[in-house]
Amino acid sequence: MLSVLALFVAMLGGIARGGTTGSISGTIVDAATKKPLSGATVTATAPSGRATSTTDGAGFFNIYNLAPDTYTISIALNGYEQFVVAGVTVVQDQNVRVDQALVKSLREIGRTSARGASNLVQPTQTADVYNVSSKQLAAVSGAGGYRTLYDVIQTSPGVTSTGYAGRPRIRGSDVGDVAWEYDGIPINDRLTGLFTTNLSTVGTGNLEVYTGGFNAQYGNAGVGVINSVVKRGSSPSFGAITYGFATEPAVDHIAQFEYGNATKDGRWSWYIAGIRGTTDNQFANGYSGFSNRCAANLSDCDPATITNNDAVVNVHWRPNARDDIQFLTQTGNEKLPWSKAMPSTAVGVTLCNGVVVQPGTRKIINPGVSASGQPCVDSTGPTGLQYTAQNLQNANVWYHYSNLGKIQWNHVFSEKLFATFRIAENFNQYIFYQPVDNANFDGSLKPGTPWDSTKSLGNQDEYSDRRSHIYIGALDLQYTPNAHSTWYGGASYERDTSAEHYYDFCGCDDAGSGSAFNVDGSWPNLFLAVDYPLTLPSAYLGTKQTFGRATLEPSIRYDSETYHIPNKADPAAYARGPYTVSSLSPRFGAAWAFNSSTVLRGSYGITTSFVPAAYVFNNSPNGITEQDGRINSVYYPGAETKPQINHSADLALSHSLPNGVDSWRIAPFYHKSNNKLALERTYVVNADGSVTAKGPTLFKAGIVNQATGAEFGWNHVVRGDGLSWYLAGTFVNYWGSISAGTLAGGTPYGRPIDITSYAKNALVRNSSQPPVSVSWTGDYNYSHLHIAPFFNYQVGAPYNVLGNQCMDPSKTAAKCPAGMLDTQVHFARPNTWASLDTRFDILKRGTSVTSIGLNIRNLFQNQYADVYPVVNGSYPKGPSSSDLVAYGPDANLPNTLYYYSPDQARREFIFYLTTKF
């Protein structure tokens, strides 16, 4: 015991960690005397495994290390009637209480009802956590297509996104505030803070969604946690094969399979699943004007055929009743070509033959010769570049590769002490290959001829390699001495060897340096390089104590992160060695059970999010002033990388109806995030009212976000045939601040702010998400027929939160058209999205079922998507504008900080055939 505690103290770590197993505990007493019964054998049995426990002198039993599954609990003691409780559902990170009284004679003492994981009343749970079961996931996503968590996560209360199937936010947070996990492995990279896998739902057994009140076990989670738990094999075996295809206007093909099995003795189990999907998206509801605009500037707005491949293997070995060793691996890759309507005459740039550049000055000594035999010069002088032909598959293509691996050892020291040790690897890579320079509609810019800088559009002209390689070691302990007390703690250590390299082919794209060459004369220009390691140690400690109807759960967490910045001799580089930040995060949760059907819970907690490495230091060989002149160093005077501190509080009331089918929960919440990162640049207002920028653009931790709101859920879950449904609603009053006297490019507003109108940290409406979002998921089964409708409705996001372009100080020199000044906050058009999945079993033979189905996506053919907070000055508005066709009747509004982006596919019909065996 002392050695285990010593190891716990020695291993300090700092990552979000979710469990992959649950537990069952309870107290067994004599029905007549109410005295505790010792020596009773309690057995939990499910397809995924079997485990036993024996009650102690207080009648208490505890069974650790149970895979998420539905168990039958049997209780046996000599001299007493055996008691069996069926349908006890266990999910990860949660304990199920089974308290029972045994009788000595053959008489019925009442029926014990098992509480399913989908029941929104969990009496001793102090966090707002929702378990999205595999059945619910299947209902909301349908079959026959490639699905990610974006497609299914809005079935959970508290989760919203801008439009449907967008990046999820939890309780008014930013997208980077959500901690993602895959079977307990953190999948947020440390470069950007976003996720590292394709987020495919293949192989997912259930989702654990924490919207608030999560304890100190979870770190680097700004507001919420989403943990995907992978299925595991069982005996008898199970499997499924699905093939689906869609008709015009979009062409989809998917092939998906899964298989799980286990040995009869339960020592070995294995599960494997995979999917391949190709999707040919047609956006803008078929309006060619939108596609032509994308083709004209070759922007990232119109993807062509997307290819996805994902696979997972999950193996468990249980050498004895106390040990479970897991081997898990996941792999995925994605290819996403953009600019679907790109003309065949598009060109990019490449290096000419024989180019010589003087090191240290970037001066071109010899411009070289193009493939056509001409010197590589234009009217401005030598360029050293020539045109190259581009097509849809190589002009603007993104590649994503992800690989996860985990070895986890779960060990039951005793029925009261449980430990989990894991080592994990997380590899993630994005390749952005975007060499295209010019759409070149008339074909006048011939491949192989010298590049002309005066005709360059600089559309993409870059190559980017962003990768993270994360290694994790973690230990978690849980000690449950009795029915009223649980203690837990853990520690981990993470090391990242990451890299982010951005190359500019022509010197005219993002770098802003005006040169395609590096200072050493090499090509292309490496204008951003983040290639130093990170280390993150942390530790946490907490306890859950039950006093009658009350449950209290205080916990505390320590996190630290070190950016191992190289120590360079050149003081202008502002590279002065490793930089460390740390934080202490206390959290408190409580629950009060009025009875077994009604529970009130609440929490207050502080969480910390560290600044991603990409915003801390640029190790480019060209110096840190590359990439738009941004000073990307924590040591630069005025720069700040304070950890983001989040304060969250909530109160939730849950109630389960007597019918055992319905339960609901309502939870008002509040959170405030300080020290959010923003790009800032000082500016001055000139006498004529125009704006002049002054000084470098800095990263500063000076933005505040604040949200109040409430989430609501109602689950109606039936067993067997009938209609189950899940209602989720979220109201968010979301505000963000501005930093007076700056260009707050990192805020959602992205333009100069009048320093006379707004004080520092003044809060204004945030236009990044809708204030109201409601979803309804249905799952109807009757004999051979299965129908699953899904409906999502959103009140449009606010826009024009800072006034339209006429309020922009940089525009005051130009007269604002009469009647075009607009200072009111507007709300975008409501967004409605629906799908319908219908499946019919055509062949049943034993446990094997073959079905045909139809999945209709975007059932109502919603023609309008979300609202983006950007200036839409390039879109002419007015009664005669063709935009009225593409954007609807609101297209004649003045140029405000928004535009309608009709980026949703048209209605799609997906036919599929599936066989389960």
What characteristics describe this protein?
917 residues, mainly beta, Ferric Hydroxamate Uptake Protein, Chain A, domain 1, 22-stranded antiparallel beta barrel, globular, membrane, Plug_dom_sf, Plug_dom, TonB-dependent receptor plug domain-containing protein, Beta-barrel_TonB_sf
Quaternary organization:
single chain
Give the count of helical stretches: 6
Radius of gyration: 29 Å
According to CATH, the homologous superfamily of the domain at 128-230 is TonB-dependent receptor, plug domain
CATH topology of the domain at 128-230: Ferric Hydroxamate Uptake Protein, Chain A, domain 1
E-strand count:
54
Q: What is the CATH architecture descriptor of the domain at 128-230?
A: Beta Complex
Class per helix and strand makeup: mainly beta
Q: What is the highest CATH level, the class of the domain at 128-230?
A: Mainly Beta
User: Which sheet architecture does the biggest sheet show?
Assistant: 22 strands, antiparallel, barrel
Low-pLDDT residue spans: 1-16, 106-113, 283-292, 740-758, 863-904
